[in-house]
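User: Hey, quick favor. My workstation is busy. Could you predict this chain's structure for me?
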Amino acid sequence: MATIEERQQVLTSSPSNRTGYHFQAPKNWINGPMYYNGIYHLFYQFNPKQPVWGNIVWAHSYSKDMINWKPLENAIYPTKPFDINGCWSGSATILPGNKPVIFYTGIDLHNRQVQNIAFPKDLADPYLREWVKPDYNPVISPDGGVNASAFRDPTTAWYGPDGYWRTVVGSKIENQGLAILYRSRDFLKWNRVKHPLHSVHDSGMWECPDFFPISTQPKAGFELSAGVDGLKHVFKVSLDINRYEYYTIGNYDFVNDRYVPDGSSPDNNTGLRYDYGNFYASKTFFDEGKRRRILWGWSNESDSKQDDWAKGWAGIQTIPRSLWLDSSGRQVVQWPIEEIEKLRKKEVVIYDKKLAFGASLEVEGIHTAQADVEVTFDLSSSLNNAEPFDPSWVDPQKLCMLKRAEEKGRVGPFGLYVLATGDKSERTAVFFRIFKESNKHVILMCHDPTRSSMRHGLYKPIYGGFVDYDIKKSGGKISLRSLIDHTVVESFGAEGRTCITSRVYPEFATGSNARLFAFNNGAKEVKIVQLKAWEMRKPLMNGF
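Assistant: No problem, here it is.
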């Protein structure tokens, strides 16, 4: 078991390229975030020995605002036959009597993936520093033909109207993704339900499944056992086969234990995503204190393993996001939690600036390597001149690769150059393009980091997503927000309807040398209605 001091030593061994206000550790993977008695807990996968996968334990930090984090001793680590070869991902649940429990995947003596539980040693300890793993574990084993090497990541449990607890474990049969459903009256003895909660052919292994009710009220949420008639549910999986996530919106039949997508989006890897970029193994939890649902995600490095060794760390958590159902009912909306605004320092505001073709406008007066920027663009005078949309353009990522930031269009590309040098030889482009299709507009949002760094050997994928947004109904206006933090850029288009995260590693656009520009490479003029940018301070505590 690694002590806090040992983790700090790993952390400080090579501080280059560390983020400033994102939670990060030498190695992490999302586990079970939890709100309990006024305190937020983040449990995450941590390798105390190396900045690569392996030797996995559940590290533990706590916070009162999800921004300032303080480390605790590791919560769970391999000690027993049911987890001696690893303590993998899982979730946290609050039982009656306000008693928290952790559900996690252990790798046993035979290298089988089994599901275990752990309880706080002392409920009077406000920080829940020590956890006890009962010897009667595992509580769920891969019996009855379940693939013991593909059986992991139990969800937060929910309580049904019939008096049974339920949880889902990710799995597969050949290439069919499965959410295997289990029920229990006492949280100790679990029985497999004959049918899965949900399954999809040709989707491969389902990792980190998540299932929860969702509200249309902005920034509001429901706890998992809410039995409200007509309430929509979200079902999300992380696809091991391609490292994407996707989700569907549908209905949950409490009586028959079936989740049925409503068909508004594809139920496969071409469907809706929380984030169309570097974002995986996400997990939500219900924040009882503020009655909202919070989404956490993991963003891995996209430089090399050798770089990870040199830095001494790898991987970050994205900024926690409030999540709710869009008023259309077709998708979720996400927005950085309001607490992040406490980190804002010096502010710069720009009003009513027009950008002609090829124009750029530098945002001056603040350091922008660690910043929060919000901008609203007005395209009302240009929408009728948008280029036609080709129906064969079904893959937004490929379309962003075809029509990059420097590729001239009619309405767009327009947006932001972030983490840029003064001459823009290094820059990451975050932008929109607008197309016309019969009686509506199609909006494409892209991250183009192909010129993000002069360094060689970096993975610099272009990401893209379509934006489900009626720009004409909105008066021709569309918003963009980007959280910039040295090696990560998180962007939120059209008030959080489409989100993209990228990891970038500038060689020259670092620290005080990083610049920020608004730009337009479209033939039609774009107006900046308002741009606000804030320099961001570091949290007082950040995980370590």
